[in-house]
Amino acid sequence: MRCVIARFPFELTKSGVLESMKGIKPEPVTGDSVIIGRRHYPAKQVGQVTTRQDRRDFSAGEVLRAMARLGFTCRTLPEAAPARIESPLQRASAMLGAPPTCPSDRRDRRALTPEQR
User: Fold this and answer.
1) How far apart are CA 69 and CA 93, in angstroms?
2) What stretch of H or E contains 22?
3) Which residues contact 35 (CB under 8 A, 6 or more apart)?
4) DSSP 80
5) Structural domain boundaries of the chain?
6) Backbone region of residue 71 per phi and psi (left: phi > 0; alpha: psi in -120 to 50; beta: other values)
7) 35-89 pLDDT, tens per residue?
8) d(CA 19, CA 63)
9) pTM of the predicted protein model
């Protein structure tokens, strides 16, 4: 099947991709991936091996589009939710298992007598 990757046409077949990826150890997947056989390969690694081009010359989307047309299963990682920013006091309280308190709260509690607490 004719696929265009990085503005160059390639004649790719499913058997050709399987053959070229045989014996290639998959790198850790941190983004888009292609399932070839029972292994998950990063899209950029598949593109580099099958086209013999530098990874900077093409996008993962181009590889995913071509591999999906050939019948391979392609996966994309969902967008991560923004991380909650914690203060050092909140982080330490969470590690100790206590609810976070403000230093001014401690003064108020010291002013109370044991009966009032």
Assistant:
1) 52
2) none
3) 41, 72, 73, 74, 75
4) P
5) 2-75
6) left
7) 998 999 999 999 999 999 999 999 999 999 999 999 999 998 766 666 777 788 8
8) 17
9) 0.63
